Amino acid sequence: HTVHYHPGDGYLAWLQYRRPAAGGTGRYQEYNRIVAAGLDDTVLRTAADELAQGLKGITGREILVSETMAASPSIIIGTFGTGSLVDGFFSTEVSSAVKAEGYAIQTDSQTGSIVIGALTPAGVLYGVFHLLRIMGTGGSVRQLNILENPANQLRMINQWDNMDGSVERGYAGQSVFYENNRVTGNLEQIQDYARLLASTGINAITINNVNVHQTESRRLTDFLPDVTRLAAIFRSYAIKLFLSINYASTMEIGGLETADPLDPEVREWWRRAASAVYEAIPDFGGFLVKADSENRPGPFTYGRDHADGANMLAEALQPYGGIVIWRCFVYNCKQDWSDRGTDRARAAYDHFQPLDGRFMDNVILQIKNGPIDFQVREPVSPLLGAMPQTNQVIEFQIAQEYTGQQRHVCYLVPQWKEILDFDTQLQGEGTTVRRIVDGSVHGNPYSGFAAVSNIGNDSNWTGHLLAQANLYGYGRLSWNPGLSADEIAGEWITLTFGFATDQEPFQILLRTFMESWEIYESYTAPLGVGFMVNPDHHYGPNVDGYEYSMWGTYHFADCHGIGVDRTAATGTGYTAQYAQANMELYESLDSCPDDLLLFFHHVPYTHVLHSGKTVIQHIYDTHFEGAERAYGLLSDWKLMQGQVDEQAYSHVEARLREQAAHSNEWRDRINTYFFRKSGIPDQHGRTIY
Ligand code: GCU
């Protein structure tokens, strides 16, 4: 392995495989034999290698791998089926309950051997990572009896990497994939990324930005050999490779004069393009498409709709089992700010919902979790679940574009959990987002999760070391949305730093994670109104940064009040996109939750919240408290000195220091702005400029 790292720089992330600390020493020591048949399969080989590498770290012993039964106790891994070494250990009840990517793990009571059985090599790999996670967190392996299937079929990562090495909304250095318009020479690092992803359950990746420009379009043609190399790396970790494509490739690189989806020549071009890709990469996943969005080309140019566009590509991919993932982030980005009738929040639903039933079976719509754009607080997109005959996946953003850009700590799993637990009420109570995206509500052939990655070539992958927990958490949640946010954070803490749950540093870190989203929200845009950031790069406070722009993200603050009236009665009518019960919940000032109040209503500063505070006092209080709590995170972290590696300590300390100072800037900008607009003083007489 040629990648060089220092233990404290975070490169190994949650795959440290250190020997268990206090109390755990010696627990797993006897497991130094692996039995694995079928090692000519690349994924099984990966599983055996990963297990060997992990066990070596954990036991401190040399690990023997054999293809035939070895002395007990050993760890026996393999797929079910004739001649398999694992079959005898599982009842048919267990083995038949294991689905495509699932696995069963059992400890044989007689011999103490641990057996991991699965239907597919991918399942074995996930089972191996599960076992290593148990050992890495100090769990008992004496009586394992585990059966797991992933809740979601598609568990995807979207890279927003450009071929010049930059990363759109990247906050962790340059791309690990590309430099100077080629794939980087450092394929080991890409492989290390693949293993990080696979260890959390990720099974699909798009390797390029959704904004596809000329050079990137050539991935389908002259860069195909590079893409093929990357596909091989990800294949060995059971991760399917997808490409973001330029909708207008026929014009950009194909020499045609149109990208009209109904034009026979255009269709033929795509059929040939698909055939070439599949010839090089027979298990290629398919295309991700951002069309008619933020100045990207799309079918609207030709008077066609998104079903026409998506189906054209779907038809080309269909013979090979490929899929088209079509993004619903479509809105008018040239809006007239003075026009209060247009509402960007409505756009995805308005564009796509009427097309339900028109998409081919191998099209999936990818829908951002909220109707705007990954703000710290948004309601759930009403499009999720609203197209029963259409495959849908939810899109999250692990990259912290609007949540501190990996300079502030903001553990996003609690936010994602809240979204997944939201009851859309589309088929009565209990129609949660979680059940919509796992496919169980409408029974669509495809469903799942996608998310924008937060990694780059910074030595710790994510810029902020603690931002690793978001990548880890996303993967874990995509596999099992039933896990809790603190369970996931706890796993990350123990796997990364080795602290046991009852140790003080564990508790400090857990508290930091679990409070971080709330803290970030409290000193930034209030009550669901969103934005208030500097234009373009989106970092730091600027209350009116987008107020008179064409982007459709406004707060409408004046001397009387603030907020966006999205009611059906007097506003943009956005509330009517929800099922009746939720529509009523948001429509009425009496029932609208405080944290989304300004997303749905325009109210006077003196409006009294359910909390009993006025809107203006709430703004002041949360901003003073939020900044204070950000300082609290820094002083908590100081207790970690000597508990974690010095390099990791000072890195996080520096980021938390920056966050604390920056939270003051946020506090003062927001408080001052609203004090000047409203003229209403803070009840507690604190300093407002
Ligand atoms: C956001 C982001 C863009 C990105 C876009 C998208 O608007 O700021 O950089 O391209 O989302 O999701 O397509």
Protein described:
Keywords: Carbohydrate metabolism, Glycosidase, Hydrolase, Polysaccharide degradation, Xylan degradation. It is a single chain. The chain has 689 residues and is of the alpha/beta class. 34% of the residues lie in helices and 11% in strands. It has 19 helices and 18 strands. It has an 8-stranded parallel barrel. Bound molecules: alpha-D-glucopyranuronic acid (GCU). Residues 168-169, 210-211, 290, 294, 329, 373, 401 line the site of alpha-D-glucopyranuronic acid (GCU).
Summarize the structure.
With 689 residues, the chain is α/β, with parallel strands linked by helices.
Show the helix and strand layout.
Elements: E1 33-36, H1 42-59, E2 64-66, E3 75-79, H2 92-97, E4 103-107, E5 114-118, H3 121-136, E6 145-148, E7 154-158, E8 178-179, E9 182-183, H4 187-200, E10 204-206, H5 214-217, H6 224-235, E11 240-245, H7 249-252, H8 264-280, E12 286-289, H9 306-317, E13 323-327, H10 347-352, E14 363-368, E15 391-397, H11 413-421, H12 433-437, E16 447-452, H13 468-479, H14 485-497, H15 504-523, E17 561-562, H16 580-587, H17 597-600, E18 603-604, H18 615-638, H19 646-678
Parallel strand pairs: 1-2, 1-3, 3-5, 7-10, 7-16, 10-11, 11-12, 12-13, 13-14, 14-15, 15-16
Antiparallel strand pairs: 4-5, 4-6, 8-9, 17-18
Bound molecules: alpha-D-glucopyranuronic acid.
Subunit structure: Homodimer.
InterPro entries: A-glucoronidase_C_sf, GH, Glyco_hydro_67_aGlcAse, Glyco_hydro_67_aGlcAse_N, Glyco_hydro_67_C, Glyco_hydro_67_cat, Hex-like_dom2
Domain Glycosyl hydrolase family 67 catalytic: 137-461
